[in-house]
Amino acid sequence: QVQLVESGGGLVQAGDSLRLSCIASGRTFSTYRVGWFRQAPGKERKFVASITWSGAITYTDSVKGRFTISRDNARNAVYLQMNSLKLEDTAVYYCAAAVLSGNFDYWGQGTQVTVSS
User: Fold this and answer.
1) How buried is residue 43: exposed, middle or buried, by Cβ count under 10 Å (0-12/13-18/19+)?
2) Phi-psi bin for 17: left (phi > 0), alpha (psi -120 to 50), beta?
3) What SS3 class is residue 88?
4) Least C-beta-crowded within 10 Å: which of 5, 58, 88, 113?
């Protein structure tokens, strides 16, 4: 079992930056694949980025070059650095964890990111 807590969301202007944090409990967190997802109002939850235990990274196309996912296993933490934010990045951002290549079974409560013009 692992529990996830996100933080770092907020209200920013277009072009600004934010860094989201996901802090996990559990001694085996370093073996989990961790992902960030987002859900905009009235839309489905969508994949943003993920990082495996070995550091392999995947991004959705719309955030490539702007967002950076990283992890610090010593701190049981995964981060999402978001630069050059756009209005369409507005969403609730969720951290999720999966055992190795399995499904994302563990989810945080989400953190709101709002980008204004």
Assistant:
1) exposed
2) beta
3) helix
4) 88
Residue with tokens 């559990």: 26
**What residues contact 17, with CB distance under 8 A and at least 6 apart?**
81, 82, 83, 84, 85
Per-residue pLDDT of the chain (117 residues; tens, 9 = 90+): 889 999 999 999 999 999 999 999 977 788 899 999 999 999 999 999 999 988 999 999 999 999 999 999 899 999 999 999 999 999 999 999 998 778 999 999 999 999 999
Note whether 114 and 13 are within 8 A (CB): no
